[in-house]
Amino acid sequence: MAWTVGWNRWLWLTLFVALGLRLGLAFAVQNEVSKTPGRLCLISGDAEGYWELAGHIAAGEDYSIFDPPRRLLRMPGFPALLALPRFVFGDNPFAARILLAMIGTVACGLTYWLGRELGGEAVGVLAAAYTAVSPVICLFSVLFLSETAFAAAMLGSLIAAARLARQKLGLHPSISRQLSLATQTGALVGLATYMRPTWLLVGPGLSFLFLFSGNQSIRWKLAVSLVICLALGIALAPWTVRNAWVTGHFVPTTLWVGPSLYDGLNPDATGDSNMEFFEQDRLLQTMSEYEMDREYRRRSWAFAAANLQQVMRLALVKQMRYWSPAPNTPQFKHPLIHAVAWLAYAPLILLACLGAWFSRRDFWLLILTVAPIFYFALLHLLFVGSLRYRLPAEYPLAVLAAIGFTRLAFATQPVLNDH
Questions:
Q1: pLDDT of residue 413
Q2: DSSP secondary structure string, 8-42?
Q3: Domain boundaries, the chain
Q4: Residue 172 above 80 pLDDT?
Q5: What is the DSSP letter of 410?
Q6: What is the pLDDT of residue 173?
Q7: For residue 3, with 0-12 CB atoms within 10 Å meaning exposed, 13-18 middle and 19 or more buried, which class applies?
Q8: What's the confidence (pLDDT) of residue 419?
Q9: Strand partners, 65
Q10: Radius of gyration over alpha carbons of the chain, in Å?
């Protein structure tokens, strides 16, 4: 079979299927939630907050929510995205779901791009095909949750990093090109951080890895690494300056880390999210938002230090929830849903393991495809565990699975090698 011929048509077919499935789910989800007056989403909680913040942005109002106001509760990227259909179509959730369906399709296209950079056309198309039809990925594409929009932005940063890695491996040595790609990498990490704050650490992490890879001089590698961090800082500067103006403190992301950490590390923690303590404590009645965040951080680490065995048990429960094939929420507990989720998830994991074995000497390929899913897994040893937090990392993992499939079936070779 000629792997280099005719893949464009399969790519367009894949994207057509991806969009069709997501548009169908947008209609189905909206039809389901509209049966209950006032209901916004299948999975309640964060979705309502994102929608309300989007409304404030669309109306030109203060970026805050609740009373007392929380001005640094969420990163503004996803609410700003939802604000676009709210500005044009008003309070129309279905119009927003249509936009999210399109963003989900773009994420499939970006999966193809990353796969093409790392393994060639066939790998790219196969990886995109998985993300196009994966039931859980499709469903989350049309929910008012940030996972899919973050995945698209995250993939952009990984693509830029993959292209930079190829430059540093000497395939196309060009100083100006390397600096341009380093700038793109940092800026796109910043864009992804606007969608989800945990991606912030990836910028310094990539800088560190680039500093110790390749055969160039340490001075030049240091320059490339610094450019990544500088571009990231510039990308986040508007938000950081705004936060300093609002709070008087340097806050590059949000002031919800403390409560989120305490959600996973407190005497009543179960591994699932339960923010009832926040309403019971009512710290914002006597503290600023910044002080509240610091207080919950202090309580979290104090609990962890005094209850190491319980923290370890909780970590195991969180990981079970994180790696679960199906969503953990009660409405998705039907055996048929779990069976479908397993049928999609098991091949992904098995083929990704094969891909990792076949690519075990390809440092950057493994970093860009495997590292995200383990990075989030490590974070959620502390925070609560859920499939939601793993889902964005399945997009690059699909690239590794596609490499495993092609190497197993057709003995094709990936193109990115760190020798």
A1: 53
A2: HHHHHHHHHHHHHHHHHHHHHHHHHHTTSTT---S
A3: 7-410
A4: no
A5: H
A6: 57
A7: middle
A8: 36
A9: 70
A10: 22
For residues 150 and 200, is the Cβ–Cβ distance under 8 A?
Answer: no
Amino acid at 353: C
For 337, residues 6+ apart whose C-beta sits below 8 A from its C-beta are: 326
In this prediction, residues 50-73 reach a mean pLDDT of 94
The Cβ-side half-sphere exposure at 362, using a 13 Å CA radius, reads 22
Say if CB 114 and CB 399 are below 8 A apart: yes
What mean pLDDT do residues 271-289 have? 94
Residues 123 and 113: their CA atoms lie apart, in Å, by 10
Model confidence, pTM: 0.93
Mean pLDDT of 124-142: 96
Output the six-digit token pair for 1.
């079979």
Contact assessment for residue 129 and residue 93, using Cβ atoms and an 8 Å cutoff: no
Q: Say how far apart CA 326 and CA 165 lie, in whole Å.
A: 34
Contacts of residue 299, Cβ cutoff 8 Å, sequence gap at least 6: 262, 266
Identify the pLDDT of residue 169: 53
Length of the chain, in residues: 419
Distance CA 260, CA 257 (A): 5
Listing DSSP states for 39-77 in one string gives ---SS-SHHHHHHHHHHHHHTT--S-BTTTTBSSSS-SH
Q: To the nearest whole number, what is the mean pLDDT of the chain?
A: 92
Q: Which two tokens stand for residue 410?
A: 């057709």
Q: Is the pLDDT reported for residue 418 higher than 50?
A: no
Query: Cα separation of 391 and 389, whole Å?
Result: 6
For residue 145, what is the enclosing H or E element? none
pLDDT in tens, 78-94: 999 999 999 999 989 99
Residue 246 burial (CB count, 10 A): 18
Which pair of tokens denotes residue 336?
């048929």
Worst-scoring range by mean pLDDT, 99-103, 164-168, 354-358?
Answer: 164-168
Could you give phi then psi for residue 42, rounded to 5 degrees? -65, -40
CA 315 – CA 369 distance, rounded (Å): 24
